[in-house]
Amino acid sequence: GQQVMQIPQYQHVQEGEDFTTYCNSSTTLSNIQWYKQRPGGHPVFLIQLVKSGEVKKQKRLTFQFGEAKKNSSLHITATQTTDVGTYFCADNQGGKLIFGQGTELSVKP
Amino acid sequence: EAGVAQSPRYKIIEKRQSVAFWCNPISGHATLYWYQQILGQGPKLLIQFQNNGVVDDSQLPKDRFSAERLKGVDSTLKIQPAKLEDSAVYLCASSGSGYEQYFGPGTRLTVT
Question: What are B12-23's pLDDT values in tens digits?
Answer without folding.
Answer: 999 999 999 999
